Amino acid sequence: MLKFILRRLGTMILTALCLTFIVFFLTNLPPNLEKLAKSEAGSRISDAEVQSWLAKNGYAQPLLVRYGEWLGVVPGWTDETTSGQMTGRCVKRGMTAEDVPTFCGILQGEWGFSTVFKDEVDTIISRRLGLTGILMGFVMLVMVPSALVIGVLAGMREGSRLDRTLSTASIATTATPEYVSGVIFIAVFASSAVGLKWFSGTATSAMDNITFNNFTLPVLTIALYGIGYIARMTRASMAEVMTAQYIRTARLKGVSFPNIVLKHALRNALIAPFTVIMLQFPWLLNGVVIVETLFNYKGFGWTLVEAAGNNDIELLLACSVVAVFVVLVTQLISDIGYVFLNPRIRIS
């Protein structure tokens, strides 16, 4: 088991390096750097002034060098102005030459400075990610139990009217994107034009005070799609388990149907949905980008959209690191959990 985890960790590190380098390369393309220079130094500066600004701020170095500086494995660039003042990646206001650290990348906890929000990136990410974590927590509380109940009820009697009804509803919810269901919810339940103004609060106010009125629609918008997907996977797994030989043997022995479902079928049927549930966390990061923008809930997804729309390179890179980390960690937890739940894999 230890070798399995170490092997997975090695793969995670290699994958993270590859993905972050791709994002770093795309965000540091010449048009993006030129746009950054003009947004910081003035939109009417000449091409020569753009190149001068990029050189003074360390963007003229080779891409691999800048990537190493961003990671924190290559010494940060430094420069001295004509007045004798030192500037550089690792130089902060009030620092003397002796106080400037050699390395100042994400490995040292230095995430950079946001050009849009005018604040440290790590401060922004921690605040916004916390808000998204609250949203995702409520979504999981609604989504997972509902999906498992629907999937088990549909799968334990395959082909019945209940199975067909629940399966049709699951397919319908999965086929409805968040931006469609969100607009429908707002139009029907939060708009005074329709007459069903049940939810008068805004998701922006939920950032400070979560209530039923201001948080229900964002949670339902995200959960609706996931409920159908997990329910379908649970239904397929449950239907397969119910046709297994040991279930037939239990029936022949006279075991009641509820006991067959709860004591024999349910545990084995939940092995596959467990993996699917863990993989919902990366999907939720994509879902919140749409929902947070739609409901103006200023969490991680909203921040990612703002960073991308305003060419905030440092913040955009930080968002990519968080997204990659969440995906890789949830996959590792999923693999470990699957090994523990499935005795055949654990023994082998």
Strand order of the largest sheet: 1-2
What is the count of structural domains?
Answer: 2
The helix content is 55-70%
Q: Which word captures the global form?
A: elongated
Radius of gyration: 26 Å
The helix/strand series, from N terminus to C terminus, equals HHHHEEHHHHHHHHHHH
Count the beta strands.
Answer: 2
Q: Please identify the oligomeric state.
A: single chain
What share of the residues does DSSP label as strand, in percent? under 5%
CATH class of the largest domain: Mainly Alpha
From the 3D structure, determine the CATH topology of the largest domain. Answer: MetI-like fold
CATH superfamily of the largest domain: MetI-like
CATH-derived architecture of the largest domain = Orthogonal Bundle
Question: Helix/strand/pairing class, anyone?
Answer: mainly alpha
Query: How many individual helices?
Result: 15
Q: How confident is the prediction overall: mean pLDDT?
A: 83
How are the elements arranged and paired?
Elements: H1 2-27, H2 30-41, H3 47-56, H4 63-71, E1 78-80, E2 86-88, H5 121-155, H6 161-174, H7 178-190, H8 212-242, H9 245-252, H10 257-269, H11 271-278, H12 280-295, H13 300-309, H14 313-341, H15 343-347
Antiparallel strand pairs: 1-2
Helix pairs in contact: 1-14, 2-3, 5-6, 5-8, 5-13, 5-14, 6-8, 7-8, 7-12, 8-10, 8-11, 8-12, 9-10, 11-14, 12-13, 13-14
